[in-house]
């Protein structure tokens, strides 16, 4: 069968040479120096143009269209969270912003008073808690996008900086994000729980430890962790209760402060008795504080316990435990 050749005008392509093949489906299209193949619609001699062809032709006129996030996600098959993470800086830049903000808010007069309150153990910028939290409030959006490794780095960068406001920021950060500290590491449940607690331990006991950071870490981080993973972490609390490190002993006593009616009273009483002989102020105070807190939900059991062990408990512990009992 002879091949049929025809010429006809087209609004988009000008004069097009159409060479029809035997099957009538595909034709060679030649315009100027460009050769391409197009598929003809059945019963029509005009090439059927797709949405993509139309869009590309429009882009030639208007310039390339900007790709939005959704298009990027489709093209590169990446999750939206990963895309956002690529657009923000890591922990170091967050920390630099924090440093700049703290430095701009420095108040030497308040810094001296705050240092005196903590027995001159730490340097201060002189930023009180409400203002301090307002300063780094804008950083939480960036912090939320950090992965586990960057979170740990940020906590350490803050903790080992000289001014106390950095350690207080680290405590607030840990309180908000402690469940993500190892969430990207694909650990077993037991390893995840113990690793997170071990990470907290280095700040509770190893350096720059004082009641202002130990206490919130104890009942806002350790407490919820133990409550979530009791089978893995209660044995650790048993060991901390007989530790030679004061701050670990204190933590074992007060970690249940936020448990209220879910407090394991027998464990609390047992821990208090084990260290009742200690003459360390922060341990005696912790015993009284923990008993007083439990007294809010079970006054009777606390009164019975204190009365029974009044000779064993220190006067400070007894006084603090029954402080609000009429």
UniProtKB/TrEMBL annotation:
<dbReference type="Pfam" id="PF08713">
    <property type="entry name" value="DNA_alkylation"/>
</dbReference>
<feature type="region of interest" description="Disordered">
    <location>
        <begin position="41"/>
        <end position="65"/>
    </location>
</feature>
<dbReference type="InterPro" id="IPR014825">
    <property type="entry name" value="DNA_alkylation"/>
</dbReference>
<protein>
    <submittedName>
        <fullName>DNA alkylation repair protein</fullName>
    </submittedName>
</protein>
<dbReference type="InterPro" id="IPR016024">
    <property type="entry name" value="ARM-type_fold"/>
</dbReference>
């Amino acid at each position: 069968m002879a091949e049929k050749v025809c010429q006809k005008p087209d609004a988009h392509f000008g004069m097009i040479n159409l060479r029809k093949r035997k099957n009538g489906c595909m034709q060679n299209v030649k315009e100027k120096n460009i050769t391409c193949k197009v598929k003809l619609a059945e019963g029509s001699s005009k090439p059927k143009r797709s949405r993509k062809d139309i869009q590309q032709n429009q882009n030639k006129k208007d310039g390339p269209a900007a790709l939005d996030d959704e298009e990027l996600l489709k093209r590169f098959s990446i999750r939206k969270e990963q895309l956002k993470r690529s657009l923000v800086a890591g922990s170091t830049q967050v920390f630099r912003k924090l440093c700049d903000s703290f430095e701009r808010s420095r108040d030497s007069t308040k810094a001296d008073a705050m240092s005196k309150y903590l027995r001159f153990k730490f340097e201060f910028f002189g930023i009180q808690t409400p203002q301090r939290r307002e300063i780094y409030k804008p950083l939480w959006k960036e912090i939320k996008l950090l992965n586990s490794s960057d979170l740990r780095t940020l906590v350490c960068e803050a903790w080992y900086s000289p001014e106390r406001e950095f350690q207080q920021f680290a405590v607030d950060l840990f309180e908000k994000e402690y469940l993500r500290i190892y969430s990207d590491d694909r650990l077993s449940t037991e390893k995840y729980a113990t690793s997170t607690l071990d990470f907290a331990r280095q700040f509770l006991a190893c350096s720059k430890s004082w009641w202002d950071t130990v206490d919130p870490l104890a009942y806002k981080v350790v407490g919820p962790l133990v409550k979530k993973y009791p089978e893995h972490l209660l044995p650790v609390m048993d060991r901390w209760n007989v530790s030679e490190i004061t701050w670990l002993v204190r933590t074992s006593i007060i970690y249940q402060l936020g448990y209220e009616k879910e407090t394991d009273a027998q464990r609390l009483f047992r821990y208090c008795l084990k260290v009742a002989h200690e003459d360390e102020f922060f341990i005696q105070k912790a015993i009284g504080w923990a008993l007083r807190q439990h007294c809010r939900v079970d006054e009777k059991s606390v009164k019975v316990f204190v009365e029974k062990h009044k000779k064993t408990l220190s006067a400070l512990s007894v006084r603090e435990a029954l402080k609000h009992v009429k």
